[in-house]
């Protein structure tokens, strides 16, 4: 097994933390990652072994190429750049300086780690039998930057053979990398249901169709979809996230709106969920004398790790980090547009443990107090380098 024989130096480790903290102080929302993209592009251009840097790909995306000294396949390594519309809690010295925007998912660390990967590879091109395409994508938290980047031609010239990515993961301790063979993150859908009742006086319910009562009945009835329609051995989620109806205590609501999300892993369940929502909503409304209109939108497909690539990644990372440092990770019902890259070329998405090993006390992703154990950054870079070097080790396994 090829190991990263020039391990991360203390200087690079310090730079990873400094980059991450700078991105953390200046979070940007999806497709507005102008500052982040500029810093990334400037840093990549300053690395002598990086042969091309493209900015403005699908808006704010950045793509860089490192050409190995020897011919071989092309590996794409992807990071996402966007923050979330969350007001950060806490008073860290590197806290967000932007009101209502925060890196609460770890994408600040993803950018830093991808820069670290780029720096190391750009200094070790003699080790590479092939090419590495570094992709920094916008808007993972929505509406999605991976798909437009692929549409902009990121998978071509040179053609990408394998895709790799990583996500800092507070469900695992720092020092550990989690891998999940097959589906690892869920197919993500969004829906909204408009219920049309008949408004009226709150004292004369018999002369109206109460949208609050109808919406409540629909919410209750939808609870049977996962429990009674989905095979208990499959995984699915149906969540009603919002219910809005009515304006005044003594007025019967004329309309009601529900919005929600569905998560699943297989095409069959992905078809079943909207079909059941439509049937239940339509008939429940009809039973109450109301009508409804369902809008159902597919957001991201399921993120699927290629089994062969995942086993290769496991062996390569274990050789680098040590036995016991790679663990089988449970799939997440969260969504990820890394799925588009993995659908375009087989590969693997790594969960890089980022919670405090003692206590696991750091807040979960998307929490206003989210933070990471920064030791995870160097671990992520080493894990990713191990995977890249394994894929580009050449015919003789040099
Ligand atoms: Zn997120
Ligand atoms: Zn994320």
The portion of residues forming beta strands comes to 25-35%
Straight-line distance between termini: 9 Å
- How does the overall form come out from the CA principal axes? elongated
Helix amount, in percent?
25-40%
Uncertain segments are: none
Main β-sheet: number of strands, strand sense, barrel status? 8 strands, mixed
Total of DSSP H or I helical runs spanning 4+ residues: 9
Q: Count all strands and give the number.
A: 16
Name the hetero compounds present: zinc ion
Structural class: alpha/beta
User: Topology as H/E string?
Assistant: HHEEEHEHEEEEEHEEEHEEHEHEH
Strand order of the largest sheet: 1-2-4-3-5-16-6-15
Overall mean pLDDT: 96
List the helices and strands and how they pair.
Blueprint: H1 10-25, H2 34-45, E1 52-57, E2 61-67, E3 70-80, H3 107-122, E4 129-137, H4 146-151, E5 162-173, E6 177-179, E7 182-185, E8 187-196, E9 200-201, H5 211-229, E10 236-245, E11 251-252, E12 255-264, H6 267-287, E13 291-300, E14 303-305, H7 307-321, E15 326-328, H8 338-344, E16 347-355, H9 375-391
Parallel strand pairs: 3-4, 3-5, 5-16, 6-15
Antiparallel strand pairs: 1-2, 2-4, 6-16, 7-14, 8-12, 8-13, 9-11, 10-12
The site of one zinc ion (ZN) has 4 residues, from loops.
